[in-house]
């Protein structure tokens, strides 16, 4: 039997979706999904439709839905489930940016984002950036955007957000805010979004970048005299393991330092560890820092 066009192994499937091979095998046994193609050799092969379907399953789980409910839904039902709270249809602007990113047209992506940042100003552009990133995540889940395009878009958006932040005048007397992500979380754009919001609240911003080990965050907080440590947690890393790491960081930080976590993976439906604050969004984060000033 000739191998059908473009299938992948269970290892590739796990890589492409961010899920574990164990989870995929358990669902296959328990729910009969995904349904593998069996080669004469006995090897399992999976279709592109399985990648798209499992990326939606993974995102639904990352948002706190139960496997027993999610794995029984087909792609359309999952889209409806995922569309409800966060996924407003991609704006025309987001579609245009992604169109250029998909063709690696760097200069056009930069021109569009810089132009919009100038015309909207920092606060409105924070919302626009969120819409573009959500649309990018949707396009990736649909197989319409590659990881290379996500990298390209992320780097340009980070530059534009930094440019906006540099234009916000420095003011004294604000909070000292240290920003980073936990080990295992490579999504770093939330740091630039939160840094701009913090600067608008007259805070002094210290960005450590992605994946800083816990003891290093605690030492950096002491050395920089930070009054706030703020983390960005995306849907890719949110969950009970991250909650445990957050609690560990809470214990490692001096009691007077506030620990805040944002990003869609930060809390979801979980209560979240004690002594950690979860601002609902960038506007609440800015207001919280302004009040503390
Ligand atoms: C760009 C991107 C990448 C880039 C990141 C590049 C970079 N330099 O940052 C790369 C290519 C590295 C990447 C890798 C992966 N990614 Co990715 N990625 C994205 C994408 C498109 C944008 C990420 C981002 O920066 N979002 C910004 C975040 C931080 O936004 P947010 O959580 O919605 O937060 C909002 C607010 O809460 C607030 N906020 C954010 N942080 C903070 C912090 C504070 C303090 C406050 C107050 C507010 C705040 O601002 C945001 C906008 O409003 C998202 C889609 C998405 N919707 O997020 C997928 C997404 C997060 N990735 C996803 C996945 C699965 C992966 C991979 C596992 C894929 C793979 N198999 O390799 C890896 C995992 C890497 C890792 N270990 O972290 C999934 C996660 C869901 C799931 N299935 O688990 C998503 C949701 C895509 C999808 N639709 O499925 N990714």
If you had to describe this structure to a student in words, what would you say it looks like?
With 293 residues, this protein is of the alpha/beta class. It folds into three domains: 7-82, Multidrug-efflux Transporter Regulator, Chain: A, Domain 2 (Orthogonal Bundle), CATH 1.10.1660; 92-166, Methyltransferase, Methionine Synthase (B12-binding Domains), Chain A, domain 1, CATH 1.10.1240; 170-292, Rossmann fold, CATH 3.40.50.280. The chain contains 13 helices and eight strands. The protein has a five-stranded parallel β-sheet with strand order 5-4-6-7-8, sandwiched between helices. A three-stranded antiparallel β-sheet has the order 1-3-2. The longest helix has 21 residues, at 147-167. The structure holds cobalamin. Cobalamin (B12) binds next to helix 1, helix 3, helix 8, helix 9 and helix 10.
